[in-house]
Amino acid sequence: MSEYHYVSLQYSAIQKTVLRHERLWSIAGISNILSSMNEIEMPAIAKRHGGETIVAGGGKFTARFEDEGQARSARQECMDLVAETLPMLEFQVSKIYKADSFQSLKDNEDYNIVIAELGEKKRRFRGYGVSFNPHLALCEECGEYPVQDRLHRGEEKTPVCRICKAAFEESRSIYNEKEATTTLQKVYHAYMREVPDASGKEPPADFNDLFPEEKESEKSTDEKRKRMAVWFSDLNNMNDKVPVWLNQPDEEAVLGTFDEFRKTVVEIIALALAKTFPKPIGEHLPFRLVVAGGDDLCLVMAERDILTFCANISRTLNEKKSELPDSHPLSDAWLLKNGNFEGKSPKPFGFGGSFVVTSIHTPFSQIHRLGEDLMGEAKRHTGREGNSVTWRIMAEEESVTENLLEFERPIFIEEHGNGKNSLDSLTFNDYLKLLNKYRKKISGSHLQQIIALMHQVENPWEFERRLKLLDAGEADKSFSSLLKDENESFRDAHGMLLPGRIATLFELMSISGGDNYEK
Fold this sequence. Notes:
Layout: E1 4-12, H1 14-18, H2 24-48, E2 52-57, E3 60-65, H3 68-85, E4 90-93, E5 97-99, H4 102-107, H5 109-124, E6 149-153, E7 156-160, H6 162-172, H7 183-194, E8 227-235, H8 238-246, H9 252-276, E9 287-293, E10 296-302, H10 306-323, H11 332-338, E11 351-359, H12 364-381, E12 388-393, H13 400-404, E13 411-412, H14 428-438, H15 444-456, H16 460-472, H17 480-483, H18 499-509
Parallel strand pairs: 11-12
Antiparallel strand pairs: 1-3, 1-4, 1-5, 2-3, 6-7, 8-10, 8-11, 9-10, 12-13
Helix pairs in contact: 2-3, 2-6, 7-9, 9-10
């Protein structure tokens, strides 16, 4: 049996590279450059050197070669590609290892050496050191690299380095190519097939572009009132699925399996966007993809759309999951046939999500750190058993309300399993129904009165007594229905009022948007 030569490369510190500075076009452009290197350029390098790609996505790349010299040349060319394209990106490359198959390599003690080697490099070697000639002008966008070009935006000409120039050009051409290549581009293309009215619209270059104004008189004079929402999600339980995909005896099928997985993810995201934005207005698309590769998703939109998008992406994933044929690598039937689950069912296909609502002037790096932390909290709190979400509405200063009130989050987005919510809480979709019911019923002044009462009273019985007194003293009892809700949405099994549930509803009420979220 002939032996092959295997090479693996992985990115690390991706967030530091993508979030070099706070411009939306730069964040999106560099994200797509990363995807292009990983999904397009490195497989092309392997092919030029007579190799075959096994894994290409999610910041990881593995290829095999029949000739060791070809493997060595491809390995060096991939290293040069990363170092020259994005010098600030940290990455690790394995040595060249021999085996008759990738599966047998994993059974060989050398495989542990490969993994340990990459992990050790990631821990001990943290990127390149770069120095500059102090007499060179530095880029006016990032301030890191020497000026080599200019950005032309109308009459404005900004001196920039080659990296910022490349990110800007990439962000503008992200979906205009005749054929989509990266996962990001495929999502845009799939969305436009679903929504022909979006054809020809540019993705937002700046956060302000998320707010189209139909009339001059409608333009806001106070930009601080413009709030965006940033969505983060990560698929659950992929550590159960990926090893099964990699362990297939037919090595040529591994890349096809990952391609089928990415195709499904693209369809889910694009359909959810199409349901949320069926008739976009203005010159720009109403959203901007920041990350869409592997099992990670990050995108930006106006706050008014985030609740609808959350419900839509969960609903779309569930619908797509129910349609999967037994031959699909995400189906339980395929996984049970090809993997060893010791008589148990594979853990469910779903996601943990979060969103952050904040001013368009909040530094994106700050939003990103918070969103990632919240997303991890949603996954842990719900045991990765279903689609879950949590959120944070960021004030310009630290929120006192966040520290003083209890909220019911993270939560599942819909009921799952046997129909009972294992958290003993309302689902996100339950809250959307309550929003539809109460948003117009409770006045802003009453909402503030009830929040103030929550701050003053911790005991739930005393809170209800004081709320009844407030209700009795008001001529316009806009909040009476909270106490008499026919479905007892705001009470526990013993009939006790749950202030945290009311606080959660009021918090979601503070997100501007339409009155009907069940689209």
